[in-house]
Amino acid sequence: MTRQKRSRHRLKRAVAPYLYLSPSLLIIGLLMLLPMVTVIGYSFQNSAVLRRDPSFAGLKHYQAIFDDPVFWASLWHTLYFTCMSVVFHMTIGMIFALMLNSDRINPTLRNILRVLYILPWLFTAVIIAVIWRLLLEPNGVVNSVLMQMGIIGSKVEWFSSPETALHAVTFANIWAGYPLFMVSLLAGLQGIPKDFYEAADIDGAKAYQKLIFITIPQLMPIIISISLLDFIWTMQVFPLIWITTGGGPIYSTEVLSTYTYKLAFSSYNLSQASASAVVILLISLGLTLFYIRYQKAR
User: Fold this and answer.
1) Is the pLDDT of residue 121 over 80?
2) How far apart are CA 42 and CA 23, in angstroms?
3) What is the pTM (predicted TM-score) of this model?
4) Where are the alpha helices (DSSP H) in 102-246?
């Protein structure tokens, strides 16, 4: 083989991987990168989309949303909604996964519980919102049960009161999201060697000691990975909040996604909506980079 042919062969080998990747890179560029760059561009323009020749506005729209107290309330509500959801998703998912992995439960009962526990995962956000609106309305089942138990003295308007609306919508999201943790942790539990527990039994370890020193350390990579993904996904929840409360009452359940939507399609302020969307993008990007670094470090 001549020198020229060897050079051509090396060039083909170097280019071949990129040719295989080119269709997916083209789709990602058109469907993801192009909209992101367009929205970033809109955030620096006056009257974006509404005018054919919008003027450059600099950081004016970012300054406007940072000066808006509703934005900071939305950011706080988003953090509360997300953190509480992730913590309870993990806790409930862990409890149910341990229960389904236990040999003390009858196999038939275990299969029935497995179907029941995973049911919330099968419902769409619209169905979940309708279910919880019916359950939590003043004349609904929840108020009736709590009043009969003597926990509350009068009917509570869970989604209509500023004091309870954010907690109610967070509770509905917790109910809808724990199966992801349950299924992932159950798969992890079934992968832990039984030798570890047999050795702990020989040493006289109690159940809580086996949980703390064997089960949780073995599941920690799954817990961290799913928690980070759940944090990113929960930050972007929109349909459940929009259908149940619409961000109200009095902005008490306003989160960044509903705040941005209202700027764009209620106020038609697409430039500020774009600036708000870029802020959400930066927060999500920071979490994504943290997730990628964690995966590389493993």
Assistant:
1) yes
2) 28
3) 0.84
4) 107-122, 125-136, 141-148, 165-190, 194-202, 207-210, 216-235, 239-244
